[in-house]
UniProtKB/TrEMBL annotation:
The keyword Metal-binding applies. Its EC number is 3.5.4.4. This is Adenosine deaminase. It holds the Pfam family A_deaminase. One of its GO terms (molecular function) is metal ion binding. The gene is add. Its cofactor is Zn(2+). Keywords: Hydrolase, Metal-binding, Zinc. Residues 5-323 form the Adenosine deaminase domain.
């Protein structure tokens, strides 16, 4: 599966940090992070809220733009080895200087440089989606949106929201999303991972997003599925994440195949791969095993991702050219 060219639309940059990378930084900075790893050195968490705690603890050792340069290079190198040729990473001003605009510019410069170096080395193309964090509240989200709006351009192409979906409602974040939209950023929101079909409905209506992070619980509402299909709202589905966090008990129970059959544009991503012991190829292997997916199915999710990617036309067409030798006959 590694050889198939892949597009990934939903990857949290800090969430893609291997535990050894975080341990290395912790040692360099003399930070004690022993509480977030298990005996084998993997990230250890009990449930989704505990996962967010561990995630934020890991982020405490990411302290300088240079740390983010190294993280971005490491993440893109790992993604490229999985066959990923285009990735959209969620970037968080919260963890890059506490949402201070000048600090954010410095961190962003380091990540942009790392992305350019990775593209030169491996051909992998990266774009950034600035992301606010729901449980940090609407005021913090506005500051994050300001960072996004002030740095929107060729590299920062989107704005989104992650974090604890059970805290607050999408409409609380409408102002932040309005700021991002005015800066011509494209929009996505985590919804329907924990908050049911209603949370997807609310995110589409109140935030005006064209993509939904996860969105899998839309499966509970056939009328919503029709609306998503009709409007072409693309789901950034992360099945391995959902199974690891217990949204679904196992791969066979995951609704990805039913979502696709309902005509909803579906893509596949890893979310926070080391936390969930997954990779893009691992996701593909599980999809093949659980649902019998073959080349035409992987072509369909890849072209759905190409259509929904937050990039300009030239980038999209260059990617299409790179996909054609593998998937061209299925377009
Ligand atoms: N941040 C990182 N991973 C996340 C997830 N799966 N859901 C919500 N927020 C996140
Ligand atoms: Zn996510």
């Amino acid at each position: 599966m590694k050889e198939l060219p892949k597009l990934e639309l939903h990857l949290h940059l800090e969430g893609a940090a291997p535990p050894a990378f975080i341990r290395g930084l912790a040692a360099e900075k003399s930070v004690n992070l022993s509480g977030i790893f298990d005996a084998r050195g993997a990230y250890a968490y009990r449930d989704f809220v505990d996962f967010l705690r561990v995630y934020e603890a890991a982020c405490t050792v990411l302290q300088t733009p240079q740390d983010f340069y190294r993280l971005t290079r490491a993440v893109l190198e790992a993604s490229s080895a999985e066959g990923v040729i285009y990735t959209e990473a969620f970037l968080s001003p919260d963890f890059c200087g506490g949402r201070d605009l000048d600090a954010w510019r410095d961190y962003l410069a380091a990540m942009t440089e790392a992305a350019a170096d990775a593209e030169a080395a491996d051909g992998i193309v990266m774009r950034g989606i600035v992301t606010c964090i729901r449980h940090f509240g609407p005021e913090a989200a506005r500051e994050t949106a300001r960072c996004a709006a002030e740095t929107a351009g060729a590299f920062i192409t989107g704005f989104g929201i992650a974090g604890d979906e059970m805290k607050g409602a999408p409409k609380d974040f409408a102002y932040a999303f309005d700021m991002a939209r005015e800066a011509e950023l494209q929009l996505t929101a985590h919804a329907g991972e924990w908050g049911g079909a209603r949370s997807v409905r609310d995110a589409v209506r109140d935030l005006g997003v064209t993509r939904i992070g996860h969105g899998v619980q839309a499966i509970e509402d056939p009328a919503l599925l029709e609306e998503l299909a009709e409007a072409g709202i693309t789901l950034e589905v992360c099945p391995g994440s959902n199974v690891a966090l217990g949204v679904y008990p196992n791969w066979r129970a995951h609704p990805i195949e039913r979502l696709r059959k309902a005509g909803v544009p579906v893509t596949v991503s890893t979310d926070d791969p080391p936390f969930f012991h997954t990779t893009m190829s691992g996701e593909y292997e599980n999809l093949a095993q659980s649902f019998g997916w073959e080349l035409p199915d992987f072509a369909a999710i890849t072209y759905a991702a190409l259509d929904a990617a937050f990039c300009d036309t030239a980038t999209r067409e260059a990617l299409r050219t790179r996909l054609a030798p593998t998937f061209g006959e299925f377009t």
